[in-house]
Amino acid sequence: MNAAIEHLISSYHELNSSLIDNLTEEPSPLEFMSWPAVQKWDVQYLKAVLSDKAITVALTPDGNADSVLTDLSDGIDYFIKPLDVEEPFDSFLHYIQQQELEGDANLNVKYAQTQNDNLRDEYSELYQDVEEDIAWARIALARKPDAVNLWIGNSRSTTALHRDNYENIYCQVIGKKHFVLLPPVETACINERMLQSATYARSPANGLNEIERPLGRDNLTIKPDTPMEMIPFATWDPDKPEERPTHFSHLSQPLRIDLDPGDMLYLPALW
Questions:
Q1: DSSP secondary structure string, 159-228?
Q2: CA–CA separation, 197 vs 78, rounded Å?
Q3: Range 65-73, long-range pairs (CB < 8 A, 24+ positions)
Q4: Residue 143, phi-psi category: left (phi > 0), alpha (psi -120 to 50), beta (remainder)
Q5: Which of 62, 57, 71 has its CA nearest to residue 198?
Q6: Percent of the chain scored above 90 by pLDDT?
Q7: Do residues 198 and 76 lie in contact, with contact meaning Cβ atoms separated by under 8 Å?
Q8: Residues 48-76: what's their mean pLDDT?
């Protein structure tokens, strides 16, 4: 069986390039829409539109929301979820800006990463700045988007290796996003396991109220979810290939892509 899986992965890479096609022209006679967001969105504009509106923010010590984490106190690998907090949008934006500029690694990482169609809900004031859909994707996939989501973070915000069961079009509006992609044929490389779920929680306050408490990384602790829930999740990280590998992990050939403002990336299901 191992030999057959190794042959499958190796054959796939022999037939498929590890390079990404960078298209400078439309993939069809259709033209990409010129989104106002690409032209208008910057710190001043976002603060003017959303101001002090309360938004949901994911709080983690290292930017590792929804990922694998080994609890050093018990040696258990958990699927760790962030502590979700509400705060004014302008305060959140100022925080991630300052953290990026000052490079303070001792502060918790904040990431606006809610899903479930948040651009048409939580950030509905900004929805007018994007197109209703992406024409070529709507035609190619024969459907309109089920959800339109917006994520805002800094360079410390990360997303763990995972796969979605649906097609995604990722549009970069501000800044840069780095992707590491694995094809579905490399499922045997990622060491998917059932992990107990846990959530970051605030450490004991030691007499300080929420306003007085510092935002240092030591203020978050791991709290296993109750009732216990087991989550299937990839435990191998191609950026840390020596940790939790399988017999096949060395065969992986990740694709690495940087997106700049105005770039779109099509992510097929299960990639």
A1: --S---SS-EEEE--SS-EEEEE--GGGGGGS-EEEEEEEEEEEPP-TT--TTTS--BGGGEEEEE-SS-
A2: 6
A3: 65/111, 65/113, 65/159, 66/159, 66/160, 66/162, 67/158, 67/159, 67/160, 68/160, 68/195, 68/233, 68/234, 68/235, 68/237, 68/244, 69/198, 69/222, 71/198, 71/222
A4: beta
A5: 71
A6: 64
A7: no
A8: 92
Give me the mean pLDDT over the 67-74 stretch: 88
**Tens digits of residue pLDDT in 99-115:** 999 987 788 999 999 98
SS3 content of the chain, % helix, strand, coil (to 5): 25, 25, 50
Report pLDDT for 208: 43
Mean of per-residue pLDDT scores for the chain: 88
Strands 83-88 and 54-60: antiparallel
pLDDT of residue 23: 65
Strongest mean pLDDT among 39-53, 132-146, 205-219: 39-53
**What percent of the chain has pLDDT above 70?**
89
| DSSP conformation class of 32 | P
The radius of gyration of the chain from alpha carbons, rounded to an integer in Å, stands at: 20
Rounded to an integer, the average pLDDT of 6-27 is: 72
Residue 60's nearest CA partner among 186, 238, 222 is 222
Contact 154, 99 (CB under 8 A): yes
Q: In angstroms, rounded to a whole number, what is the distance separating the alpha carbons of residues 270 and 185?
A: 10
List of E strands, the chain: 54-60, 67-70, 77-81, 83-88, 109-111, 168-171, 177-181, 192-202, 220-224, 230-234, 255-259, 264-267
CB-based contact 56:83 (threshold 8 Å): no
